[in-house]
Amino acid sequence: MPSQILPVTHHHRGTEAAAMLIKAEIERDDPTTSLLISSEYEDVEKAITSIKPVLSRTSSYNNNNITSPNDSPGLGNCYQQRRRRSASDNSLSSLSGSNGSGAASSAGGSRRHSFSKDVGRAAAETFLVTRLSFKLLRYLGVGYRWIVRFLALGCYSLLLLPGFIQVGCHYFFSSQVRRGIVYGDQPRNRLDLYFPKSSDGPKPVVAFITGGAWIIGYKAWGSLLGQQLSERDIIVACIDYRNFPQGTIKDMVKDASQGISFVCNNISEYGGDPDRIYLMGQSAGAHIAACTLLEQAIKETGEGESTTWSVSQIRAYFGLSGGYNLFDLVDHFHSRGLYRSIFLSIMDGEESLRQYSPEVLVQDPNTRHAVSLLPPIILFHGTADYSIPADASKNFANTLQRVGVRAESILYEGKTHTDLFLQDPMRGGKDDMFEDIVAIIHADDQEARAKDAVAPPRRRLVPEFMLKLARSISPF
């Protein structure tokens, strides 16, 4: 299949623009999708062109070592060649081993030598890929600030590693988790389901869209939330979607809509109650989920629009630390390292900001009928959130109330962007936001509320000093 080219235009301030021509293949998930970043300045183009062979080698290295033989014919040939070489080496080793102890000793030395060479080659290639990654970031206009943030992210993850290991064990080995359920025909169209231990009757359902700055989102990021909500008799569906540069916001909203459709139409087969489905998103996922919900409402009011799910199937929408007016956030993100040019590329250009700004769109008189279809909307935010200021949720809730939507914002004093979603849940004990969400879901279920009242406190996953240190260096 021919490669799909995603055009991305950079819009830097002033008269000078970054110039580049980089084709980035998405090896693991979709080798047919690539990114083209173009510019009109020839001098930097030449600089980029001069490193093309190196980039090609990097791409080849990644493909050979990650992609399976089924992903593409060309990559399959490389894979098969490596298999044949490996099989040949193994055959020679076994043959020499049958010729006596001296030969076996020689073969052992040869294997050790080969292992040493492999380690050296891997180290050299790792260094090469790392160096080129920093070069690519610099050419993209992602310089010192992003490099520092990546290093901070690594330290942050290391400090929370004890919790991640425990959550990961549950994710991979628990019988209460079903991973990778296909909901569409795109590579990232998968979702994970988290089930309660008890199966006595249909359970309420949360369809969750994870965050990740529209770039690093992944369904497993919701595993901690899924595990903890399932302990309160709630089924959680964590929906994966294409990230940039594999797709832009239009593709993300399309994937989210397909995932929600799957949940609405099939969750009863998994023990879920189709009349008690809640939509939730966190950070960038909150923005994507809000865009999806509003787009669906607009489709339902249009003539001749075919839909596979209805806004009326959603009992309520929960937005966690989300941003809903892109015009207010472009400069803020730019100041924090998500540069304007990249952000506009993610959002399909400056002309699309209005379309993907729910706060702006609900005020359009043409969407009045669609807005009336929206379910209750509850927005959660920490007042110390510097990634997306709490005003984003407050302003959106106020705007929704003015246009007749049942909406409210719940603010948590002193909480950061990651406190609500990671540090607090890993701390164990009582978690205010978690209890607020569960209380809303179980509001009409007296038996469930009685169980919540006597539920044991959640256990701590990470020592307190590590949580505090992680909070202080968090890049979010």
UniProtKB/TrEMBL annotation:
UniProt key word Cytoplasm: no
Keyword Hydrolase: yes
Compartment(s) of residence: Endoplasmic reticulum membrane; Golgi apparatus membrane
EC id: 3.1.1.n2
Single Gene Ontology MF annotation: prenylcysteine methylesterase activity
Bias (Low complexity) ranges: 88-109
Catalysed reactions, semicolon-separated: [protein]-C-terminal S-[(2E,6E)-farnesyl]-L-cysteine methyl ester + H2O = [protein]-C-terminal S-[(2E,6E)-farnesyl]-L-cysteine + methanol + H(+)
Gene3D superfamilies to which the protein is assigned, alphabetical: alpha/beta hydrolase
EC main group: hydrolase
Domain BD-FAE-like span(s) in chain numbering: 191-400
Membrane topology reported for the UniProt record: Multi-pass membrane protein
Compositionally biased intervals (Polar residues): 59-71
Keywords noted in UniProt: Endoplasmic reticulum, Golgi apparatus, Hydrolase, Membrane, Transmembrane, Transmembrane helix
Region annotated Disordered, chain positions: 59-112
Domain of life: Eukaryota
Name of one Pfam family that matches: BD-FAE
InterPro entries listed in its UniProt record: AB_hydrolase_fold, BD-FAE-like_dom, GDXG_lipolytic_enzyme
Transmembrane segments: 146-165
Assigned GO CC terms: endoplasmic reticulum membrane; Golgi membrane
UniProt similarity note: Belongs to the AB hydrolase superfamily. Isoprenylcysteine methylesterase family.
Protein name: protein-S-isoprenylcysteine alpha-carbonyl methylesterase
Species whose genome carries this gene: Citrus sinensis
